[in-house]
Request: fold
Amino acid sequence: MDQSLLSILVCPICGNGVKYQKKSDELECQACKIAYPIKDGIPIMLPEKTRVLSKKE
Reply:
């Protein structure tokens, strides 16, 4: 994930920053406890495409 892009991306639901998770290739919002998928290097920042994070994540 491009660090310059990551520095400007925010969660569209709450506005907080997101963190890249290399293992799952997702962007996580810890405030909302959700993850946004990345497809072919493009973050899919649509609320309907999120995954709820488990308690361990």
The chain has a mean pLDDT of 94. Residues 3-6 form the longest helix (4 residues).
